[in-house]
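In this section we walk through a basic example: taking a raw amino acid sequence and producing a predicted 3D structure, encoded as discrete structure tokens. The instruction is simple. Fold the sequence below.
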Amino acid sequence: MKPPVFSYHDPRTPAEVVDLLATLDNVKLLAGGQSLMPMLNMRFVLPDHLIDLNCVEGLSYIREIDGALEIGAMTRQRDIEFSDLVRRRCPLMREAITQVGHRQIRNRGTLGGSLCHLDPAAELVAVAAALDAKVTVLGKSGMREIDFAAFPVAYMTSALQPDELLTSVTFPCWAAGHGYAFIEFSRRHGDFAIVSAAALLEEDKSGEVTRASLTLGGMGPAPIRAHDVERALLGRAMTEKSVREICESLRKIDAIDDIHAPANYRQQLAAVLSRRALLKAHERIAAGAQK
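The resulting token sequence is shown next.
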């Protein structure tokens, strides 16, 4: 298979990228290329211009600022996987990213590429939703921040304007000692998840939940925050029975039905994987308290 004919652009600064986006029509941005290159070869996308971001300065970094992780859009997934800072401050991301594709995919794939592609089953997309991330973008009118909850506007379609470039993503960090778990079910290792569950918990000294986050991937056109479950967990001690009862409500989510799995199977997975993720997060809190 061969890609369509296009003009290639190789800018060096974010401002150059924005200028190109503002003046060219039918443009695609090349980050890690793990989704774009197959789509080009199979002619699912037919751009007139391709802008390569791999030599753009200042888009690859991981740093902590004011209790949050700020990660550049062109940071490779493999760098995130082996970052001590990510492991210490955002272990949910570390656990999720090990389930992204295969090592070769993570060597090239980028954070920004995954979030802009916005596959609803992608691990990093679910993590961004779970952590209430903020996306920073640069356009002709300057910089702006977008809450990740408002970033997906339709299936695999983001809130980016045609002249905007995603430059970084900020992930608020939870308190030390919180519980976390990322569990997914896929047909084969390396496949996108049919359903995934990302859980975060904080508990007081008596074992009652004081803060909770539960996000489901693969259920619809964007990750779903299970706010009803989060509220039901607050002020309660975690037991297998109580968590099982609370997670049963997830069988009522309006799930997609496609060639990979029917809606009722996804609803079953949502209830089961959420229970397992929440209990695993709780167990990690207990294990940390015993040290």
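Looking at the output, two observations stand out. The first helix runs from residue 14 to 23. The domain at 62-172 is CATH 3.30.465.10 (Uridine Diphospho-n-acetylenolpyruvylglucosamine Reductase; domain 3). In the next section we compare this with other chains.
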